[in-house]
Amino acid sequence: MTGYRIDDGLVAEHNAVLEAELAADYEHLGAKLARSGRDIEAITAEVQRFKVAVPTWGVGTGGTRFGRFPGPGEPRNVFEKLEDCATIQQLVRCAPTVSPHFPWDRVEDVTELKERAQALGLGFDAVNSNTFQDQRGQKLSYKFGSLTHTDPAVRAQAVQHNIECIEIGRKLGSKALTVWIADGANFPGQQHLTKAFERYLDSMRQIYAALPEDWSVFLEHKLYEPAFYTTVIADWGSSYLAATALGPKALCLVDLGHHAPNVNIEQIVARLIQFEKLAGFHFNDSKYGDDDLDSGSIDPFRLFLVFHELVNAVVEQRPGFAPAYMMDQSHNVTDPIESLMSSAIALQRAYAKALLVDRDALSAYQESNDAIMALETLKRAFETDVGPILATARMRAGGAIDPLAVYRTSGYRARKDAERPQTPNLGGGIV
Fold first, then answer.
1. 50-384: what fold?
2. Domain residue limits, the chain
3. CA proximity to 26, closest of 395, 341, 419, 416
4. Are 130 and 430 in contact (CB under 8 A)?
5. Which residues of the chain have pLDDT under 50?
6. Residues 138/131, Cβ–Cβ less than 8 Å
7. What's the pLDDT tens digit per position in 90-103?
């Protein structure tokens, strides 16, 4: 295998400079937490167990329908994407799996893809199908829909693509298929709303029937875009109805940017957990819509509240709770590797803070209707600086105390720019 990799010696060199200061900060935080009955070692061990998948498309520069500005050293194929994903894992040590997207990541030899990933220390999470774009050589167009198209031949083509994705995923060692469709309408009257949903269910039943026994299918909803009047699977209610109709292998995936503005996402998460239909997450952040910004960059408190519900589910031993975690972001103005590392750490941070919530006290305040003290209990955990826990967890796992500093010192991006000559591509479109 060729290509520049960051030397572990550089990581160790950087860690050696910071380790004493980190140890002092960790000891100080441990003493503070101990006063409230929290064991810092137990929290750190839990943080080390947290894992999130990196999307293969996320390591490339994103864009909008207005434009895309490619960055230096972008991966040109899935094998180079794996190199970048492995670099993220090397430094943050909480992203050991990748989530591929087909046909973007199609290869002739799936076994070779799996072996290359294994050589880099990576595994495969959920596979993603794509019926929201037309591909070169595709017989029928998805311009007016895919799984819900009025033409049964188009629906059959879309169903077959999803079944092919399952077969590829099976060879890679994946256990889930994520299905997001752009199907919908831009004008009133364009689409029969009920018949479109019926066609979706009919198509999904065929895909569901092709799932291996130990697989799941994740149904992803999105309020709007590219359809701006109605989207067939627009919200968690539609997703839940479809998943319930399909069966126990069908679950509801929550993308944090796919909701109406100001929707209470943590409540949606709680409902899906309660009824054993939470598939997991596509983590990102947003200000206005499906912005696909870095996780925790806009509303870290909301992210904390989502993780609070997730920790509640573990503490309460909710049945069927085994969510899949993946980042799904579009990096338009940042180095994608830097953004994904920052986001992975933000997710760990939200998780660590959720672990610090005094749930016994919170429950007592809830039962006594003490709104202020209930809020203060959450804020006390949220406002705790858990940085020393996160850095210690990374260091103990062989990662970097300061991943961004190591990455920039290494010159990785410049080295990849030399290795990966680019073909100019200034068009629009989100990666």
1. TIM Barrel (3.20.20)
2. 50-384
3. 395
4. no
5. 1, 426-429, 431
6. no
7. 999 999 999 999 99
